[in-house]
Prior knowledge:
The protein is of the alpha+beta class. Helices cover 29% and strands 21% of the residues.
Amino acid sequence: MCGYYYSDLKHCTTTENLQRRGPEEWKVLDHEFGKFGHSLLNTIGDKTEQPLMTDKGILLYNGSVYNFGSVNDTKHIADNLTDNLNQCVEFIKTLNGEYSLTWVTEKFVIFCTDQFAVRPLYFYSDEDNISISSLSDALDFCPTQIKCQENKIYVYNRVAKHINIFQNTVWNLDQKDTSYDNTFNTFEQAVKDRHDNSVYAISGGHDSGVIACCANKLFDNAVFVNNVPNEERDIITTRRSKHKIKFVNYKVDNIHIDTDNLYRITGNEEIYNEMATLGQSAYIQRYMLPYNRKTLITGDGGDEVYADYGYKGSKIRAYSKFGGYFPNNLHTVWPWHNHQNVLARFVQRTEIVGGYWGIELRLPLLDKRLVQAWLNTTAKLKNQEYKGWMAEYMKAHDYPFQLVKIGYSERFKQPVILTQEKDHSGKQRSS
Length: 431
């Protein structure tokens, strides 16, 4: 979880919160192109200092891209960016991961975030200048700021002082696959790509559960943490018995949480008041920082992408668009609006809290290749059961999960029954 800013304004400042997002190194560069600042958190490959200068331009980068295996992703990205605008745009379209980047050349500035804006990026532009940062409050010296949209590539022409916007990923919506085989294989690769002596946040539901199931199958050095007070304990207990490696239960009030500072850095009272914000901060402090674990893997994105907060037309939350009943023509609904509001809000919460502690957030369920594989499954398969591919994966590995939607917040205490009155552990339920 790095942090950075770029500005061609003569007078610009930065913030302590930006610097602490990368606890290993803070570096500032004054250049003819403008002022650059970068805080480094290294998780993949050899440490690469930023801003990274080449003979073509200067790179600022935050996150992880998984296209290149164990190769240093920062250096590889810089090696593939040039002073040719079209080449840069086409290369960025190939990237898969959670990232934001800014590439500054003599003639143009390219800046963007990933397909789902897991790594948010903010900017300010007027008729003379541009400023960009991975953290909103780092642009407090600007009169206004704009949050970059997901799945967009922004190009600022330094001569014309104008911004053009390009589409990033163009999704293939041909629903042709009659099995989950490709989805399963792609999912396991997405988890493998993101695992790095990680901590896994786990609840009793599908999203974090399917990731935990996969990680338990693949790795021997993961730690699973549950702190959701309104989850069914029998599901968690049963899951714990299935795990061959460390599984931790704890209460949020076991550790002091600096709520005033959390409120200041989130800048959003609704986010601040959610149980998830406090819970994430607590397990980061207790189970990540003392043991030098740098990556937090969560199930963020599952509700928004794979269910639309509903099932067969029945809406679980008011902000569901079509109640999770997927039509034969996905062009009529994709991308559903949860990507732009609910998903962005939840991811922002986790990303900001993790960034405050110098922890990198990784989200396998938003892997570009996985989402594409799932999009290509038939509508019949999508509608067969709630979050069908996750349920089938856990069934295949005898991993328990509940057939209800509970959620993380204390505001949602009553479960919503989605299917029959039986969970996968075999226990009868009542509504």
